[in-house]
Design brief:
Length: 339
């Protein structure tokens, strides 16, 4: 039996118009009520009538998503949260994985999404030429990475403030030899490693700590990379007593390297990460928490709102909250440790 929007409204105890607004990401519905309605719609198996809606609106009811590294936790979490919002509103997702320079160049040259999608969610940072190509589609655009850019609604965090809180925490504990495990911007134009590194340098300078290039290592934003980078840092003549890893996955790799070298955390080396990965609490990792899934869901809701209210002003840049979460991997430096 086909489930109607009236059935969802009756089961959720709200009006049909409220169900419609909630599932389409429109304003006027609280997060709690929206979550309740989404859960009821999913339980009942409700889907909007695609053919009727398409004829009435001229839409494809498909959202294009361009992303790199969809197998990595951050991008997978953002994509999963966004897809749930789109699906609840009756939209399909057309995913383009642009993890290599070749596929990225081919995508922006041919623009296969043209006339196939109603909006685009970008999980990568387009350069000026790529941004112009996306704007030429004439559809709402949103992103969850990078800073504000013309024509896009960007949902993100203050990377510099988050990294500053992590490094300052280590300084306040009394650490002076503070290492950093980072990633590289590379050909994908990432601003995250640049912003977080600058924060690291700024906090060291403010604390009167001389920067030592030997205390920086590239971890490629992976667990394996973090383990390799931590091993490099332990090999320097005066290894760090504390390490800031620009992602939790790299921090977990660092913890594995320290355990392999029979060093105790935080007695011998303190470690702080960034993200609040779903396993961060399991390993007791001190980290900077950011709402990863929340960014994907919010970007999706804002795209749907633009589709339903085309004359409304786009949200522009939306900054999500971050916070330092203290767990068991950070402590003052041990007197016997290297300083």
């Amino acid at each position: 039996m086909t489930v109607s929007i009236t059935d969802v409204a009756r089961a959720a105890g709200v009006s049909a118009s409220t169900v419609s607004r909630a599932l389409r990401g429109q304003a006027g519905v609280s997060d709690e009520v929206r979550a309740q309605i989404t859960a009821v719609a999913t339980r009942l198996g409700y889907t909007a009538s695609r053919s009727a809606s398409s004829l009435a609106s001229g839409r494809t009811f498909t959202i294009g998503v361009v992303a790199p590294y969809i197998g990595r936790w951050f991008f997978g979490s953002v994509l999963d949260a966004a897809e749930r919002v789109f699906s609840a509103a009756g939209y399909d997702v057309l995913l383009y994985n642009l993890g290599s320079p070749e596929t990225r160049k081919r995508f922006f040259t041919k623009m296969p999404v043209r006339k196939r999608v109603d909006a685009v969610l970008s999980l990568l940072i387009p350069d000026e030429e790529e941004s112009a190509a996306l704007r030429s589609l004439g559809v709402p655009l949103a992103s969850t990475v990078g800073s504000a850019r013309p024509g896009f609604t960007v949902v993100g965090i203050d990377d510099r403030a988050g990294a500053e809180s992590a490094v300052r925490h280590l300084v306040n504990l009394g650490h002076r030899r503070i290492g950093m495990i980072s990633g590289e911007s590379g050909p994908l134009h990432w601003t995250t490693p640049v912003e977080r590194r600058q924060a690291y340098l700024d906090v060291l300078a403010d604390a009167g700590i001389e920067h030592d290039p030997a205390l920086e290592a590239n971890g490629d934003y992976t667990v394996e990379g973090g383990e390799r980078a931590m091993t490099e840092l332990l090999a320097v003549s005066r290894p760090p007593t504390a390490v800031f890893a620009q992602s939790d996955e790299m921090a977990m790799g660092a913890l594995r390297a320290l355990r392999r070298h029979r060093l105790k955390v935080p007695d011998d080396v303190s470690v702080v990460g960034f993200d609040d990965h779903e396993l961060a609490d399991v390993v007791g990792l001190t980290t900077v928490a950011q709402p990863v899934a929340g960014q994907g869901a919010e970007a999706a809701r804002l795209l749907l709102r633009q589709l339903d209210e085309p004359d409304a002003e786009p949200a522009g840049h939306v900054q999500m909250p971050i916070r330092l979460v203290l767990r068991e991997t950070t402590a003052p430096p041990c007197p016997r440790g290297p300083q």
